Amino acid sequence: MPDIDVFDAIASPVRRAILDLLQDGARPVHDVAASFAMTRPAVSQHLRVLRQAGLVAEERVGRERHYRLDARPLRTVMNWAGHYERFWQHHARLLGELLEEGE
Amino acid sequence: MPDIDVFDAIASPVRRAILDLLQDGARPVHDVAASFAMTRPAVSQHLRVLRQAGLVAEERVGRERHYRLDARPLRTVMNWAGHYERFWQHHARLLGELLEEGE
DNA sequence: TTGACTGGTAAGAGATCTCTTACGTATTAT
DNA sequence: ATAATACGTAAGAGATCTCTTACCAGTCAA
Fold it and tell me: Minimum mean pLDDT among A6-10, A90-94, B30-34: which range?
């Protein structure tokens, strides 16, 4: 189990889209695959990467396998990017940009 | 200008390490390269990827090129991961984990 | 049991990534 | 001017990624 790096797992737009899909709840593979213009085995392989990164978990339901989102590894990503927050804030002050984007 | 995806740019541990380095201020290429066990051209190529992702900017100083961090594209990453915050919080409530990690 | 459905894995093709060495250009020093 | 320094890019090797098709096992329905 090489345990894939979460940054590597989310580098693929397809895999990010799968995670987005799973926000609505667990889904069987054939359901996930229906959303993409690629074969089911290809989706299966993306799911494997996500599983190895700990971003999804598999639950067997009859002959289906439901994939459930597990967002916890994304905290690593949040924390890493968060350390740079002061830089873009600094940038904003410096350039007078984004001042009204308090959101 | 294919403009590289920021998720792709930060997928590499080397490139994340370069960004971390540049937090201490702009540095010339030979200085950055000294921190890695690879040749200077290899580092140069990583810097190109970061530049194309908008994560660093180049400033010419004499015969050196100083690379300066520009963290703004990381907001995209923060925002994306942030949308999943409720899921890991949900997870925490559900499993009774992380309850004291209020920080 | 037989047949349909769900989904994983293997093998291989082609694209892409990530290094290396070789070389060219611009700037600075002697 | 000549040499040294700083750096980019080109070309190519080898690894890895991302698909495909082919095939397998497990589950459910008739």
Answer: A90-94
